[in-house]
Design goal:
Elements: H1 5-11, H2 19-30, H3 32-46, H4 50-59, H5 61-64, H6 66-83, H7 88-101, H8 108-129, H9 136-152, H10 162-176, H11 181-195, H12 203-213, H13 216-222, H14 229-246
Helix pairs in contact: 2-3, 2-9, 3-8, 4-11, 6-7, 8-9, 8-10, 11-12, 12-14
Length: 305
């Protein structure tokens, strides 16, 4: 019963009123590794949208500083989750995100779509590979948490219901997941980023494994050749085996959110760092005018650049 004590605690909380506490328990103690992997793939998924990948390609950040862009995004989102979006560090992280994206012409629908992937991609991952089934309160709390974050980022027209937001995500992908050269460019930079985390002899296998984890719609949008079926099956089998083994582990005593993790850009973070130390530099001087935000447009949101 001790293995499920946090699930029982979550079941006793209100998924709307207590969404931050539930999200912290779920992402920081119950499924920390899975949330990290799922959010990596969630961001990867957004690069299947040509309007998003075109901007990322224009900034040159994924070409020149992919690791820093990954670390900035991960750490800023972690600051909000660990301390709360209305805490001092959470507000500072939001300020960095909004300032960075206030420089770019990004549509509200693109922002809304990126936000939706943060809700539903981890839920989809954990439905397949979680060591236990997600409690309904965890699903609803993730929606309410990111809805609150999105509101503070100035994202408009966020659906007010879990199913409505999920329907928006599905419809957006059906309409906007199409191949473009910039999708492929940013996708390749991201695959190389992930592969670079492993010793050189393992990198070909990592590249193949990543393609094996992508669904058909993503493969088409990136223009990637599919991996042999056995690659995806082997990866899924490994994740299922891990999930079954974790059922016999004790509950995590402390949350990993906001704790010092191995970080390639900011060693020892958060010790000695503030959220204001993170974030992308000013847009390049040669950034085409179509990507620059005019004074008539609203402010920016999620740190994609």
């Amino acid at each position: 019963m001790g293995r499920y004590r946090l699930r029982d605690r979550i079941a006793a909380l209100d998924p709307e009123k207590d969404h931050l506490e539930i999200y912290q328990l779920s992402s920081g103690r119950e499924f920390p590794w899975d949330y990290t992997r799922a959010l990596e793939f969630a961001l990867f998924r957004t690069y299947c949208v040509p309007s998003i990948s075109k901007l990322l390609a224009a900034t040159g950040e994924f070409r020149d500083r992919p690791q820093r862009r990954y670390d900035d995004t991960a750490l800023l989102m972690a600051e909000m989750a660990a301390h709360g979006y209305d805490s001092a560090r959470g507000r500072e992280a939001l300020k960095v995100v909004n300032r960075a994206h206030g420089r770019y012409a990004i549509t509200n629908d693109d922002m809304l779509y990126v936000l939706s992937t943060f809700v539903y991609d981890p839920i989809d991952w954990l439905t397949r590979y979680g060591w236990r089934p997600l409690h309904e309160h965890e699903r609803l709390a993730a929606f309410h948490y990111y809805r609150a974050v999105g509101t503070r980022m100035g994202i408009r027209d966020i659906p007010d219901g879990y199913e409505a937001f999920h329907a928006f995500k599905r419809d957006f992908e059906e309409r906007h997941f199409v191949y473009s050269a910039t999708n492929r460019e940013i996708g390749r930079y991201t695959v190389e980023l992930f592969a670079g985390w492993f010793p050189r002899p393992l990198r070909p296998a990592v590249r193949l494994g990543i393609r094996g984890m992508l669904d058909d719609r993503m493969l088409r949008a990136f223009g990637f050749d599919p991996a042999p079926r056995w690659v995806g099956a082997l990866a899924s089998a490994g994740l299922w085996a891990r999930a079954r083994a974790l059922r016999f582990f004790p509950s995590r005593r402390e949350s990993v959110l906001g704790k010092s993790q191995r970080n390639r850009t900011y060693p020892g973070y958060p010790s000695g760092y503030q959220p204001s130390d993170l974030g992308a530099p000013l847009p390049p001087a040669d950034l085409p005018a179509e990507f620059r935000r005019s004074s008539r447009q609203g402010q920016g949101h999620i740190d994609m650049t």
